[in-house]
Amino acid sequence: MLSVEQAIARLLADAPGPPASEPVPLAAARGRVLAVPLVATVDVPPADNSAMDGYALAAADWRGADQPLPLGGRVAAGQVGGDHTPHTVTRIFTGAELPNGADAVAMQENCRVDDDGVRVLKQPVAGDHVRARGQDTARGANVLPAGRRLLAQDIGVAASVGCAALPVRRRLRVAVVANGDELVEPGAEAGPGKIFNSNRYLLGALLGQWGFDVVDMGVAPDRPEVIAERFSHAADQADVVLSCGGVSVGEEDHVKAVLETIGQLSLWRIAMKPGKPLAYGRIGETPFLGLPGNPASALVTAMIIARPFLAACQGALPAETAPLMVDAAFTAPAPDRQCYLRVRHTGRGLEAYTNQSSGILLGASWADGLAIQPPGLAIEPGTPLQFLPWALLA
Amino acid sequence: MLSVEQAIARLLADAPGPPASEPVPLAAARGRVLAVPLVATVDVPPADNSAMDGYALAAADWRGADQPLPLGGRVAAGQVGGDHTPHTVTRIFTGAELPNGADAVAMQENCRVDDDGVRVLKQPVAGDHVRARGQDTARGANVLPAGRRLLAQDIGVAASVGCAALPVRRRLRVAVVANGDELVEPGAEAGPGKIFNSNRYLLGALLGQWGFDVVDMGVAPDRPEVIAERFSHAADQADVVLSCGGVSVGEEDHVKAVLETIGQLSLWRIAMKPGKPLAYGRIGETPFLGLPGNPASALVTAMIIARPFLAACQGALPAETAPLMVDAAFTAPAPDRQCYLRVRHTGRGLEAYTNQSSGILLGASWADGLAIQPPGLAIEPGTPLQFLPWALLA
């Protein structure tokens, strides 16, 4: 059996190059993957400016709290800073350019305005309440790396250096094929022996959330020739084919046999629970990933195994944040495979859903995320576990 | 000054009722807010079924590992379970309905198939490898609460109980108005005294990420009559008006005066950093929230203050997950206001961006999230801090 890490490493090593780059306006760039590094072509801020409403002056002109300096000018945000008259103060507002010759701002709360001028009550020091040119971003600096999945603040940063559009990777197209004669679509009547198809909607929602274009290929019945036709068609239309169900080696599991006819396939046994069987292969040049059909297995393998692979296919940098550790508030015996438990994060610690069966999806709606139980680790109250809130898997 | 908690509590108490409900198909429901509880009208699974490929039997028929039972039938997933012949085994596959009269499944790995029948090598117990009818969801159970912001797994759960569409709240319409004569749009030329408008794109991206419809009202110059016209127009078109900049009490800050003319307004001083000044009021019936103009202040107040308020206006349940605590790997003196530090989560713990100025947005792109430093708490390496990964604020 492969460990989860080994399985992911194999997939990443086999990921094809990213899709082509295309420009998008800033308002549409959130969640997209930056194709090239963003280099600042301007300083931010573009000039020294005031961090406060107050009075700009040359700090060396200050002669004491009782010595007034006459008002020599006024500059508001959006106006040209102009020249500061020596031995005066210039009225200034937050965000306004510091006039040439001034080097400090006295907050208005620390000034007294009289007929004979403005008294600056605290001795100013050069640089006081001044935002220096380029202090946020210097011209020529790399502000965002290629492969960045753009957050709202990245959009703000791009705007702040004057970019109206960004080059991003075309969205990865991921085809979804559900397998199984037992599947009936929601809204229809589920007769005897049938169950409602949930994986199709679950996977579609996950892929949409991850920023991919979903190519919904519907349900393939358990007939090899139909599965082959469906998979080939999916591979023609998409960058990656994701299938769900039919990946075991049972006589009703046709995915393996079909893939060996129209492409190539390995059946992996991954030391994880839920989720052991996983099929990986190619149809022509198109990667194929076959997830297990049990809903909780489909969810967990999609989040833990498919997600980093698809992100690499999209050209996105891997996340580098450290694991979050939270103490368990429950007991579980040591497993032989790595378990991904559906848990809630409460004031007492992590609490586990009562039924961790791979057939049960409802626990994932009850839970706040997954906790990782490594093989061989028995859990007791107080055992620290790696916690993956759903949001970190989104 | 108000604490952050007090400010949020005041806003929540004043949130108007949620928007109307509308049905959406499952494929479009992720991220939307459920308007009524989802009650299961079917059992999931709808009948007892097999969790394994193997042989179904009545456990009481077993006479020993060396006593073969003849093959009496076959049932695959999607087929009607039918009747099980006593004193035989029925070939069965994962997901297939258990035939009437059988009460256990023997895994095929534990069976030996010979010409004279199938030997079940381990004594079966009733219930072995059987997924009981309704074990995931029982008919009549509340599976999702009203106000739930729908996750991918919730979409899967809704599909599993046969729902093809869900009643959700119409998306909240949030108008964004940026204020300031110094603002130039990205892509244009920023002359002397001007800076690129970043908050408009930052807030637009945040609001989009939170699932709201953004009504972009552009930039209002620093002229009271134009601001008044812009705000009134925004209030007519949107459920909430969000403005950015101009909320101090300086003579160039017109938001307060304008709101007092066309509506009502309180100027709050919140004990948080970045972000102290916040304006809250109404234009007619439409809530108005005025965020500070510094980019890091705008980001933090939007995430910490505006987000829970807007979620309440949308009709969403508040998140109830416990705080994540991570040790600091840096030093910071005790502040008088609650600080929201831009931090990275590394193997050493939380590391803080070197410049925590409210004018600097780049730190938010560098960081993995915010750490909360309560007033009066000096931070040393090892001090546990509440950590808010960006994903939890998305």
TrEMBL record, chains A, B:
Span of the signal peptide: none
Recorded GO MF terms: metal ion binding; molybdopterin molybdotransferase activity
Domain MoaB/Mog: 175-312
EC number: 2.10.1.1
Cofactor(s) recorded in Swiss-Prot or TrEMBL: Mg(2+)
A GO biological process held by the record: Mo-molybdopterin cofactor biosynthetic process
Catalytic activity, reaction form: adenylyl-molybdopterin + molybdate = Mo-molybdopterin + AMP + H(+)
Keywords linked to the UniProt accession: Magnesium, Metal-binding, Molybdenum, Molybdenum cofactor biosynthesis, Transferase
Gene Ontology CC: one annotated term: cytosol
TM region(s), chain numbering: none
Family designation: Belongs to the MoeA family.
NCBIfam families referenced in this protein's UniProt entry, alphabetically: Glp_gephyrin (NF045515), molyb_syn (TIGR00177)
Cited function: Catalyzes the insertion of molybdate into adenylated molybdopterin with the concomitant release of AMP.
Name by which UniProt lists this protein: Molybdopterin molybdenumtransferase
